[in-house]
Amino acid sequence: MISENLMDQFSPDKTKAYKITNPLSSEWVYMRPSLVPSIEEALKQNLSFKKDLKLFELSMVYEYRSRDLPLEKSQLIVAWTGNQYVQASGLRDAIFGLFGATNQPAQILFSSVRTILVIDVDGLIQNAKPTKHYQPPPKYPPVYEDFTFVMPPRTAIGPMMEALKSVSLLIADVSLLDTYEDTRTLHVTYQSREKNLTDEDIRPVHEKLIKTASDMFSANIKA
Fold it and tell me: Which CATH number fits domain 143-221: 3.40.50.620, 3.90.1570.10, 3.30.70.380, 3.30.365.10?
């Protein structure tokens, strides 16, 4: 449960939440429709003690239904201080990959101050595939290349990395290697399951990566 003050801060419509008739405390007034307000408050309260925070909670939330009892749903929430989009998306993919779920009922909220990953656990379980399929490791070796981009202010690196990874099936991975002032260095892994890659194979993908970064994010390769 959460206080009325937190509901005022995070919910524009309190009529879509369940209020306790006789709360035992002013901190326990509403049944939680989301875990986000609670973890936001926990981050705020602990920042004075530690700047690098990582918090999580797994608990029930209560979805409002006007003509029925509340719908109880299990929610997992993970929070970091700072913009940790890459870590959040990586954790999301790892969790859903572990369950073999293709659909991802998850949300990432991020800013320069904090990053929050919210996972609908019931949705995760519904989409889970209990049988795992073995995929042999690639027969052919990877090829690595680093790109250093000059970024516009306040450009989120996570969405850019995802966009670059989707440029070609030959791109096996894109990771953040280094950050310095307005530059970001990305480590790109090229790999094929069918052949050894040559310079001729990689060159058009290389050029498309640079063009995608420029066209979609105004990020230019550092001279």
Answer: 3.30.70.380
